[in-house]
Design goal:
Helix content is 34%, strand content 16%. It is of the alpha/beta class. The longest helix is centred in the N-terminal third of the chain and has 15 residues, at 2-16.
């Protein structure tokens, strides 16, 4: 039963700060759970499709380190797991990751929000979001919320809902 309480505590901490940038050592100190156990719990939560861990596109053993960000698997989980105010940007990013990752490899890029299949770079935002952060990448797109139709490299966020 203590494992269930520990997982519940870990999930509560993650859900308050989605997308959560993990510091495994601080999580270990805050929860009283060993570092290796936290990593194991994160793996179990991802297998259960409660969270998604976003890693860099690195190969080999460097990818086996900690994830760069942790998201809840589905935007609705944000409302179920925390009483804190969920930010619009967090909802947008969680929705995009949930929809795209079912059929594509999604990693954490050096710039932008998501790198899909190591080809397409996406920045997630509202309809006024620009490509300032994506200027140096040839296959860069903005997935914009509150947009009916796309233009140029700006794609309405709702269209990604058709991928599943």
């Amino acid at each position: 039963m203590s494992s269930v309480d520990n997982i519940r505590l870990l999930l509560s901490i993650i859900s308050e700060g989605v997308p959560f940038k993990p510091n495994i050592q601080k999580l270990s100190e805050r929860t009283g759970i060993s570092r290796n156990t936290i990593i194991y719990y994160l793996h179990l939560l991802e297998d259960a499709r409660v969270i998604k861990q976003l890693y860099t596109a690195a190969k080999g053993i460097s990818r086996m380190q900690k994830p760069q960000k942790i998201y809840l698997d589905h935007p609705n989980h944000m409302f179920a797991l925390t009483t804190a105010n969920t930010g619009t940007g967090n909802l947008r990013e969680t929705f995009f990751l949930n929809q795209v990752s079912c059929r594509h490899s999604v990693t954490y890029p050096e710039s932008g929000d998501f790198l899909v299949d190591n080809i397409w770079l996406f920045e997630i935002g509202g309809k006024t979001k620009g490509k300032k952060q994506l200027q140096d990448h040839p296959d860069a797109y903005v997935a914009a919320d509150d947009l009916e139709y796309g233009s140029g490299n700006k794609i309405p966020l709702w269209l990604f809902g058709f991928l599943k």
